[in-house]
Inverse folding.
């Protein structure tokens, strides 16, 4: 093909296209467009990058593939012979020295856009499609296909088409041993937890990947003082929060600017401790202009299982720790029905008190363990049948719990044993392991029986759905294997699945707060753009309470556990 070469004049296009000033101006123009897009408040960074890339490629496409090389038209060949710029480039007629620029610039912009959009699936497809439409010049039809694909993507995002869960896509990618990491997902939440005695923070993405986490536990200090002293806890939170949040962010390699939101526990908990986390978070929110998501500590515990397992609503949750004891039906991200709670203290609190009364901190094997863990450890060496404690509330026709009565009975028993053995309070009884075994077993029976009632009640009322009923057990006490065994007997007898988050997610942590933030972002629930008037709420309220009586006796399946475990 020889179009244009017969022409005696230098093609004016060639002059323009080969001038550096023109491309510099163009590059500055695209840069300016990008800055304008970035400054539009509704556009996130990924959207600004994708738009810049797509607009640039669209411009290039129109210029190279649609606009013909006028006025470079040979008189003998006429309009029908006009070639597009890219065709002229192909035939070596003109623009040949710009060829590299035309090829390289969209590729560079493509990589930049992909990087800044963290390879989010939607942006990724948009950017790839627009790149291909420019770079495959022999296929202008591709441009039409690009538009169709883009429209499909927009429709999908708008919820018109079925949206496959990101978790599924992630699982498929994972099966190829290809770890796409955080860059594939663009909802990133920083979670901050300070409701009790742990200063914790974590960054979690939309698929439940924990990108970075850090925790400072105050257990050692509180073990020495024999319990949590709120001003001490507050001071320790203050000393550590900055470092912990920084560590979580650094580990995740996410800058605060990249976060989609900051989520923080604001209830329930110790007022002084909650205050530290809240004021620190509000400073961050203000500094980086991020949405704030206030988190209910119990709801965060309850939903943690959805980070590790595929659990659909509704499901039952049992939270048992040092500060909590409740049974609830989880019907949605913020739709909870309280079925039962402790009327006095939580089981972990009781186990801690018994462990203190038994002076287990002086026991060489248990000196660094929490009370509950020390009891579990010693119980393995003891014989529970040497003591006979009765599980409380045997006749109560509801799903509430009680532990303080049992604790008094145990206290009395310990006093009596001290007299018998002739030792003073503060020394370790020779029967400590037997007492630990009996206490652990009685607590396990009580918890399992109340839970059994709740399952039967929910089944009878059709509250749990017909298939695959799930009981989730979480909280520090849930790591106790004997208690789990009792619960397993109950779930097996009622055709339920027992699920527990891994131990590090059972206790207080930042991951569960960040994950709750992700759940709320996805559901569009409780995301604040204005934090004025936000307060922490130490007292537990707001869970809907279901008052009921379940009359049937529901303890038969536990008989074997009571007798033989
Ligand atoms: O969830 P967590 O770390 O903090 C809150 O209380 O929110 O739970 C701590 C509680 C403590 O009371 C501790 O004694 C108890 O969980 N705990 C255990 C075990 N490990 C920790 N209780 C029974 N068995 C265990 N293995
Ligand atoms: Zn907790």
């Amino acid at each position: 093909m020889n179009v244009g070469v017969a022409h005696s004049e230098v093609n004016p296009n060639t002059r323009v296209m080969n001038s550096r000033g023109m491309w510099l101006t163009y590059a500055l123009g695209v840069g300016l467009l990008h800055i304008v897009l970035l400054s539009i408040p509704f556009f996130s960074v990924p959207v600004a990058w994708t738009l810049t890339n797509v607009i640039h490629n669209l411009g290039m496409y129109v210029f190279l593939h649609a606009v013909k090389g006028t006025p470079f038209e040979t008189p003998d060949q006429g309009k029908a012979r006009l070639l597009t710029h890219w065709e002229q480039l192909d035939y070596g007629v003109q623009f040949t020295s710009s060829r590299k620029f035309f090829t390289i610039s969209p590729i560079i912009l493509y990589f930049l856009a992909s990087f800044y959009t963290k390879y989010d699936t939607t942006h990724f497809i948009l950017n790839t499609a627009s790149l291909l439409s420019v770079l495959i010049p022999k296929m202008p039809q591709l441009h039409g296909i690009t538009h169709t694909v883009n429209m499909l993507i927009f429709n999908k995002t708008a919820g018109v088409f079925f949206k496959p869960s990101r978790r599924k896509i992630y699982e498929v990618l994972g099966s190829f041993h290809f770890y796409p990491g955080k860059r594939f997902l663009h909802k990133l939440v920083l979670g901050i937890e300070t409701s009790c005695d742990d200063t914790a923070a974590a960054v979690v993405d939309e698929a439940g990947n924990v990108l970075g986490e850090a925790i400072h536990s105050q257990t050692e200090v509180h073990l020495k003082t024999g319990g949590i002293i709120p001003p001490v806890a507050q001071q320790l939170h203050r000393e550590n929060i900055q470092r912990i949040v920084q560590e979580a962010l650094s580990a995740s390699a996410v800058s605060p600017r990249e976060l989609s939101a900051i989520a923080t526990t604001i209830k329930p908990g110790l007022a002084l401790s909650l205050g530290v986390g809240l004021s620190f978070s509000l400073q961050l929110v203000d500094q980086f202009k991020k949405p704030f998501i206030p988190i209910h500590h119990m709801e965060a515990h309850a939903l943690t299982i959805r980070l590790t397992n595929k659990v659909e609503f509704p499901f039952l949750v049992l939270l048992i720790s040092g500060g909590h004891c409740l049974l609830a039906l989880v019907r949605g991200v913020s739709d909870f029905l309280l079925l039962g709670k402790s009327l006095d203290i939580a089981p972990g609190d009781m186990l801690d008190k018994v462990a203190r009364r038994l002076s287990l901190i002086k026991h060489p094997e248990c000196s660094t363990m929490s009370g509950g863990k020390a009891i579990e450890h010693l119980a393995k060496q003891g014989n529970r049948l040497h003591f006979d404690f009765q599980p409380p509330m045997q006749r109560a026709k509801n799903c509430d719990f009680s532990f303080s009565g049992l604790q008094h009975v145990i206290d009395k028993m310990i006093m009596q044993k001290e007299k018998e053995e002739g030792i003073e309070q503060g020394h370790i009884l020779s029967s400590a392991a037997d007492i630990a075994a009996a206490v652990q077993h009685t607590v396990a029976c009580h918890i399992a029986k109340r839970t059994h009632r709740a399952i039967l009640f929910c089944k009878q009322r059709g509250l749990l759905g017909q298939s695959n009923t799930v009981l989730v057990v979480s909280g520090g006490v849930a790591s106790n294997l004997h208690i789990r065994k009792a619960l397993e007997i109950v779930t097996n007898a009622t055709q339920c699945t027992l699920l527990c988050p891994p131990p590090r997610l059972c206790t207080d942590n930042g991951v569960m707060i960040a994950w709750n933030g992700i759940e709320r972002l996805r559901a569009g629930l409780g995301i604040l753009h204005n934090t004025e008037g936000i307060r922490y709420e130490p007292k537990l309220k707001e869970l809907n309470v279901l008052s009921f009586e379940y009359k049937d006796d529901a303890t038969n399946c536990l008989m074997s556990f009571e007798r033989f475990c």
